[in-house]
Amino acid sequence: MHVAIVGGGLVGAAAAVAAQQLGWQVTLLERGPSPLAAAPSALWDLRISSVHQRNVNWLQELGVWPLVAPSRYLPYDALSVTTRDRQQLDFTAAEVNEAQLGVMVENNALVRACWEFLARQSKVRCLANCEISRFELAQKRLIHNQGEALQYDLLLGADGVNSVVAKAAGIGVRGWDYGMRCLLAVAETEHAVAPRTWEIFRPQGPYALLPLQENLACLIDYRAEQDWRGKDELHVTAALEETFTPHIGAFTLQNFASFPLRRQRALRYYDARGVVLLGDAAHGIHPLAGQGVNLGFVDVQALMQALSTMPLERALARYEQQQMRVNQRMMRAMDAIHVGFRSQHLLPRFAVAGGLAAVSLVKPLKRHIIRAAMGWE
What we know:
- The protein is of the alpha+beta class and 377 residues long.
- 35% of the residues lie in helices and 31% in strands.
- It is built from ten helices and 20 strands.
- It has helices at 10-21, 53-62, 107-119, 164-168, 225-228, 233-248, 292-307, 312-340, 346-361, 363-373, and strands spanning 2-6, 25-29, 48-52, 73-76, 78-82, 88-92, 102-106, 124-127, 132-136, 141-144, 149-151, 154-157, 173-189, 196-200, 207-213, 216-224, 251-266, 270-271, 275-277, 283-284.
- It has an eight-stranded mixed sheet.
């Protein structure tokens, strides 16, 4: 089988690795430059993912993880959540007899590792700076700007929330804006940062810390659209210092950026003409718990499992049925957290407080939640 994959980011590149390991011919088409075209930057990029342990193990099995630069990821062993009423709940890997919950990894480093792996495979072609000129889905063919008419058996769209593959297949989307922006900042800290991630909720939106190195962290701050849009470095620095200095002490910003929050899902995950959507092309989720890339990796695993065990049409239907249920459940959970933890009304706040108290007291429930956060439940 010849699999064409549009989108060479985290999910698309991982899908290419997984597909070639099943013995298939793979063509990966990426509209941007190759991740291997330039040396890695000395500074961490702002695009950072929390990859849970199940997916770390999967990437190790694929042979990709050993190629990730050790200086661009950090295992973490604990996470904590604090409500706007100052109720805190901690989750640790030790509670389920594990060494770590997952890793914080720079997206660029993980994508680079995938492309390095793919460059060594005889059945894989990686085409960078490649724009699709025309889709001919009925003929299972596409034409790109490098002059080739590419014939395929299966077309995977891993090209993000504005997927050209989804549009070509006539797959509609449903979603809405949250009216908020997420600001990401990489900060060098004066004091050492513990290998634990935490999130604190407040009326205007939560803020969180992702550890990156001993004295490096990613600071995340969710606020209303107008609070972050177009703000300069002085404004951002002052706002982040007020928020984070009480927790981590003095720090210096290396870089920052913000993006609007949007929830979006494809109405279908596949088209009978041999088209499948993966990752953000199928579901754009609130980044609250950092589950976006994890859901995308699980999409790849579910699709490859179905394709390797049943006929194509049946496999695509099984993939859609399974992953649409899983992903929508996670999207609803993120919406519930987004609303419940920020609510000014007493009833939702009492519900949150009662729920956290129950989790704290009922150890089997807490262990189940920790294992779910690691991708095992």
